[in-house]
Amino acid sequence: MKQYVSGLRLFTIGLLSALFLMCSEKSPETKEEQSNTPEVLTDEELLDLVQSQTFKYFWDFAHPVSGMALERSNKDAYGVEGYEIVTSGGSGFGVMALVVGVERNYIGRTEAVERLHTIVDFLLTGDRFHGAFPHWYYGSTGRVRPFFTEDNGGDIVETSFMIQGLLTARQYFDGDTEEEILLREKINRLWQEVEWDWYTQGQEVLTWHWSPEYEWTINHQIKGYNEALITYVLAASSPTHPISPSVYHNGWTSGADFTNGQEYYSQWTLPLGPDYGGPLFFAHYSFLGLDPRGLEDAYADYWLQNVNHSLINRAYCVENPRGYVGYGRLNWGLTASDNHQGYSAHSPTNDLGVISPTAAISSLPYTPEYSMEALRNFYENHRERLWGPYGFYDAFNLTEDWYADNYLAIDQGPIVVMIENHRTGLLWELFMSCPEVKTGLTALGFTSPHL
Predict the structure, then answer these.
(1) Could you tell me whether strands 136-138 and 154-155 are parallel, antiparallel, or unpaired per DSSP bridges?
(2) Which of 89, 149, 280, 337 could form a disulfide with 356 if both were Cys (CB 3.0 to 4.6 A apart)?
(3) Helices 302-319 and 368-386: angle between axes, nearest 10 degrees
(4) Given CA atoms 101, 106, 111, 115 in this order, what sign does their dihedral have?
């Protein structure tokens, strides 16, 4: 989870910031209404609109040098570095959004391949740490931008989000043109050079961070159910640096919040995770590519896990035990996002009155009727303050009369991808077609219709 807001100010890259500010068509600073938009749209028209508008964050607003996704859209974030800091994990979600863009005819296939070459070339020449990407890069140089002081090296979870996206793209761009062949070769090099086994420190658990300066000082072991299931799956799937299945069975499952088993609202049992399931991104980030339909292992049915997590999150908002303004059946969804005080991983046990549109919308595959109701409410009843050039702004709090005026890559990406998985299952089918992933899932004892 993103639990830190870095206050570091390393240096000013004025030239690039000026270049960005000159690109007025990319600026998200104004909240102009979209002209000529029908007041009442069918469900399909509304999904088309939200998906295509949100896609622009990763296409129109991408970093001009690296092609990567900016961490967030407000230019003054992190001092003057807001338009220079790009995110590995959010860019991985953006890579999957590019696949959607081609499939939905937002962009051409050749355009997408060109952009992907820019991204993978940036990653190949940028800082890597035993093959792993840092959480943040400087988008013009490829040098690591520390997320916080000791986090200035490899982040194996953010790396897994990017690799998930790259493998999905590899499967989609399967043509025999020179450019697509070369793209696949570059993706395979990045994938094969990640030393997943290094991040075990020789123990039976993965460790989140490693720094060449601070080494294992953070010592954040990845265990207990959260957003990192994809990290263990990819680590087991690696053709060059795989972890042993025992790392999964003895490490990932050993956290205090791994097994749940409680029933909520006298209806829904939650197999895994913290009380009430935690923030909804637990049901999204790993499952942008990893298909939960029929996915089971010794610990859970992951479709049931994600459906029940979403239903419990909504039911909590309907119950509204803290009496926040506006919570209800049409206005729900707690996950990590900005808020009126800063940033937090919102959930039923950390409820600040903040609704994040990405939470309900990205749960469309799990709760299609309820998510569509929320999406329609966000658009029809809050459009004036919640809708902008890249879709829905990050979050809002009616109790505080606060609406965000910015976007975060990690919140926008799942909207594009999970709408598509709801509509066609495209990203699920692509990622699960990877032979290495099939091998890894089998080694860990998973069953799936894809295996």
Answers:
(1) unpaired
(2) 337
(3) 50
(4) negative
Give the tokens for residue 120.
């993978």
Judged against a pLDDT cut of 50, whether residue 116 lies above it is answered with yes
Query: Stretch 423-450: mean pLDDT, rounded?
Result: 98
CB 241 within 8 A of CB 197: yes
Please state whether the predicted TM-score (pTM) of the whole model is above 0.90: yes
| Residue entry with tokens 């001009």 | 64
Please state, in angstroms and as integers, the Cα–Cα distance from residue 105 to each residue in 55, 132, 337, following that order. Answer: 11, 32, 30
Distance CA 395, CA 309 (A): 20
Q: Is residue 326 predicted with pLDDT exceeding 80?
A: yes
Q: What is the mean pLDDT of residues 293-321?
A: 98
Reference 146, options 65, 211, 70, 92; nearest CA is 211
CB atoms near residue 446 (< 10 Å): 21
Query: Does residue 18 have a pLDDT over 90?
Result: no
**Are 5 and 343 within 8 A, CB to CB?**
yes
Query: Burial of 283 by CB count in 10 Å (0-12 exposed, 13-18 middle, 19+ buried)?
Result: buried
Distance (Å, whole) CA 156 – CA 305:
24
Distances (CA, A) of 171 to 183, 407, 428: 11, 29, 11
> Per-residue pLDDT tens for 64-85?
999 999 999 999 999 889 999 9
Check: CB of residue 33 under 8 Å from CB of residue 383.
yes
Cα 184 from Cα 3, distance rounded (Å) = 34
The letter for the amino acid at 362 is S
Give, as one character, the DSSP assignment of residue 24: G
Sign of CA dihedral 165, 115, 338, 404: negative
DSSP H or E run through 101: helix 88-103
Q: What is the pLDDT of residues 172-217, one digit of tens each?
A: 999 999 999 999 999 999 999 999 999 999 999 999 999 999 999 9
Secondary structure (H, E, C), 217-262: CCCCECCCCCCCHHHHHHHHHCCCCCCCHHHHHHCHHHCCCCEEEE
Q: How many CA atoms lie within 13 A of 411 on its CB side?
A: 31
Given this model, what pLDDT does residue 12 score?
31
Q: 193: which 2 tokens?
A: 């050079």
pLDDT of residue 11: 29
Contact 148, 4 (CB under 8 A): yes
Element (H, E) at 375: helix 368-386
